[in-house]
Amino acid sequence: MLNIQNYSASPHPGIVAERPQTPSASEHVETAVVPSTTEHRGTDIISLSQAATKIQQAQQTLQSTPPISEENNDERTLARQQLTSSLNALAKSGVSLSAEQNENLRSAFSAPTSALFSASPMAQPRTTISDAEIWDMVSQNISAIGDSYLGVYENVVAVYTDFYQAFSDILSKMGGWLLPGKDGNTVKLDVTSLKNDLNSLVNKYNQINSNTVLFPAQSGSGVKVATEAEARQWLSELNLPNSCLKSYGSGYVVTVDLTPLQKMVQDIDGFRRAGEKTQNSKWITPNIKPGSRVLKRRKKI
């Protein structure tokens, strides 16, 4: 972080301004109006201070974890835009970096950029980069993080929220599908209805469209795709199995993990149409509940 205290009121940081000598009454003094370098430096410090304030505001906004909504998304977008605007102002100002700050930032921008939030490949490292160019690079990379990284997570949460809601709707029907047997010691399950609803949900999210793709984030018409390397990196980031990486068109996408649902469908025949209550309870515990817990964890990504 830049240390504002490093900037002094002297036109040249690090050099103490000498106190002007008071002329005697007999001396003839000619006064010329010249632009104040100190005033210019003060303006630059104000710009730097404003940018620092925007950085703090953006950190608070982007680190908050309220439920995803259009209002919250707009708030994060506004915070990013305000921050990048302040950095763009710094790029056009006279604020300079220390030699150490310049070297550290130049090294950071020369390093390979993560595919998780790379806006575009970096050019070949340069030995000399102006302070204005560095401010501009900081602004561009913050925008890239907002659009390419946080935007993906917002999309992941939105897709999994809809998916888990559909699964919860199926679970809410379980009470109506379990009926007592004639002797009171057995229960009957409408296996067909349960299996059909689970299969319907699996088939829905097996389709690749804007409502089922986790990465890349979808917008507009058609399905956006990414390179295999980008998709695999997000697959690892989201801790998803390889079955969630799918080839589509000219690229790849990452989709919802359907493994828990598919396991339920495979094991559902183990729940007999009629049997002892304790036996049926033992089947529900290892087959329905673990899948539910997995889906809940996915929802909290």
UniProtKB/TrEMBL annotation:
The keyword Coiled coil applies. GO terms for cellular component: extracellular region. SUPFAM superfamilies: IpaD-like. Its main location: secreted. Residues 1-26 are annotated as: Disordered. InterPro entries: BipD-like_sf (IPR036708), IpaD/BipD/SipD (IPR009483). It comes from the Bacteria. Belongs to the invasin protein D family. This is Cell invasion protein SipD. It comes from Salmonella enterica I.
